[in-house]
Amino acid sequence: MSYVFSDSYGYLQNSSSTTGSAMNIKYKKKYNKIKRIIKDLVFENAALCDQVSQMQEKIIIVKEERRFLLKKLYHLQAVAEADNQLQIHTPKMQTAGLSPPSATSDINSSSKKTSAKKRSTSEILDSLKMNPKVKKSSTMKTKKIVQPIPLDMTGRPVFPIVLGGLTVHSLGEVVSDRPDYHTEDLIFPVGFCSTRVYGSLKDPEKQCVYTCKIMDGGPAPSFEIVADSDLDAPLVGNSANDCHAMLLRHINRAVGIDVVNTKGRGPEFFGFSHPTIQNLIQSSPGTRKCTSYKWSKFEVNRTGEPLVEENDASLSFDALQRSIAFSKSHMVAVIKEEPSDQLLSNSSATLRDLLMS
Q1: For the whole model, what pTM was predicted?
Q2: Which of 51, 104, 160, 199 has the smallest C-beta neighbourhood within 10 Å, fewest atoms?
Q3: Contacts from 59-64 at CB under 8 Å and sequence distance 24+?
Q4: Is-contact 147 271, C-beta < 8 A?
Q5: Mean pLDDT computed over 227-235
Q6: DSSP class of 200
Q7: What is the three-class DSSP state of 294?
Q8: What is the mean pLDDT of residues 155-176?
Q9: In angstroms, how far is the first alpha carbon of the chain from the final one?
Q10: Is the preceding omega at residue 339 within 30 degrees of 0, hence cis?
């Protein structure tokens, strides 16, 4: 197209196209600049997120160290107070026993006074020797042995936690504003979940996995045991002992004879009374606000030897099988040896005495 032979409209058309291309170049530069700024902001945001996560991990580690130091401090304070009390009482005993008799009194009266002082000193010594032991036994609890468990880089336990036949999947959350969610010895965290291998409700000689949960029941916690073979029939109770007692009654009913003691041991079956789990629950947030709970002292098992496995028929599947086998063999022996008229009257009492002892 030649600009010489074009009319005025052609010049106008050419100038509009050049201005449009210039505007496109200008907007493209702005677009690239904004794109570069957004990319820089994305990288900066990612770097800040990484710094925040690192700081959160450091805060968690510092909190765990602070909790550990507080426990050590409380322990040392208790020991120091006991030592101070012993030191306070000891000088009084010595001064009471070394006070000289008066010079104005005669020999008989002085001998009587010194003998009386010696007797009183010996009595005080005996009483003070007995009192610290009583006080120490009342204040110092026996330490519970804790099994070492794997931890992550932040010091938190790695789930699931396997402790023999017990497997803990979640510790739950400590409820401190309701008094029925803890006692002097135990805490019932909402959301606690564990599983245990035990005899089936329908056939106790077969293994079954039971899921134990602690749920929010309003003013008091709700406890639940569910068998994987019968998910539609959970065992629910107001306490862990009630749930476990119901389970044991179902086991005896399925076998036909009393093979286990139906007195519930719910905290042991659920697992929240296990020293390792109790130590983790005690270290959870909110435990300090549980007014009725008395803190326990734990010690890590550093010997490397495994802890003694449960040998109770109400907790262990293997122990349950031994009890069932013994009961059946004893029943066969009773049927062969005793006459039929004495079988009904003596077999149940004999089995109960042997198994419940």
Answers
A1: 0.56
A2: 104
A3: 60/154, 60/155, 60/156, 61/154, 61/155, 64/155
A4: no
A5: 90
A6: -
A7: coil
A8: 92
A9: 115
A10: no
